[in-house]
């Protein structure tokens, strides 16, 4: 083996060790590995940068914008409530998530499916008090295995099928023929996740975590006229078990109703008093059919775009200290409406307009985006902090967003439009129809994930150009030659291993001629080898960098590299055994 191959092997090994054991970010490790390959001359600079111009990387980046448009329009909340429902346990939630996702991914590209579902699952987990880390990895695994059920499920299937048709024109695979292996893989994956996820996956809430002992506010919301919540019980409206929130009372026709039963029916005009932390208040304000009960909010502006929630602490130098909110004309002075107040860690109840402001009071405001920049260093406030993701949802744009998503899917699956082209058009349409602003579009892109994908592509190029991939393949096949079943197992092992380092399509294309040569040497049919290649190329469960959908759930699920190895490693083994056993039965040697 040449020096470049040995050097690449060393760099890849160190990279995986650091990814598994160190606290350094994944993008930092992978970019450093690529830099080492360039420094030692294994790859040149254009090769190192080819990931940045890769269509798949660009597609993932643009799909973040589409997903944000779905989220900001309220479509995600609608889907999470109406489609996923209210499961009573993590196991039920996993099944309700995985089986539909696998079915959809069998006929649609799994990348947009996961891009659409990530914010929906995050919202669903938060609303139902479920651990998002128990759901995100199963989401990706379901999308991956679902793609194994049809020839159009993944781009790898399409490429390999075309190569197979060119090699052996008299044998054609039907659209659903691969489902003989794909469906059992989906069922095994679902059973494995349900049985072992509690032990193998972390039990945390990722980005949706709530801080214990945080400040609690009392917030009043009103059921709007013609609200979809009017006529529903508190339980059916989904207001009884909101995470981080407690429904204190309902005020109806000036009559206070404390300790309200879950069966109590809501009416338009009901004033609902909640107590909860600031993150929970953000979720509350995003519920369609409820509006803030504080009249000051509606004196700000009829247009909600560009407004968000902001936390401030009143300083002793604030000119309104000692005056009530109403007498001090807080709204007029700061162009901001007070939503709630806490004082010395205690919730302040009563009409906010009558509350006398004191130094040290924590105020939760609704104001324009530029409030933070305007008052960050003003003497009036000790602290000014923007609440993340607190922009009001544009519920009126929900059907626009859903229509754009469906149009994108139809364009790709029915008219042959490239995934990147369809995603670019969809993201442009999201902005033009007002589903999200240009600022929200820019801020929605996770550049860390894109750097990980781009660096992985460059690292894979190093594995190929150094000759490491070819040497490993030839060495392993020299050991297993003579046995058809061992050869199938070797094909699966190599393809799955290379797919963790280089792109799935590249791994499949690299090993296709090896598989053909091996079948010819053994004097057996090449079909089971091609099927094994298709499955193995998409069996990227053991690393987050092995598949785009794994990277897309990596951050939102709050995972570490080792979590994928622990959960995905055994699943890769199970799928491999299943494939090696089933493929020769359906497509005999």
Commentary on this structure:
With 589 residues, this protein is of the alpha+beta class. It has 2 domains: 295 residues, no CATH class; 171 residues, Alpha-Beta Plaits, CATH 3.30.70.1450. It is 53% helix and 10% strand. It has 24 helices and 10 strands. Strands 3-2-4-1-5 form a 5-stranded antiparallel sheet. It has a 5-stranded antiparallel sheet with strand order 8-7-9-6-10. A hairpin with a 2-residue loop joins β2 and β3. The longest helix has 26 residues. The radius of gyration is 27 Å and the shape is elongated. The two termini are 33 Å apart. This is Di/tricarboxylate transporter.
Q: Within the largest sheet, what's the order of strands?
A: 3-2-4-1-5
Instruction: Flag low-confidence runs.
Output: 206-213, 296-303
Class by alpha and beta content: alpha+beta
**Spatial shape:** elongated
- Number of helices, where a helix is a run of at least 4 consecutive DSSP H or I residues: 24
Distance between the termini: 33 Å
Please indicate the count of domains. 2
Into which percentage range does the β-strand content fall?
A: 5-15%
Find the count of extended strands (DSSP E, 2+ residues).
Answer: 10
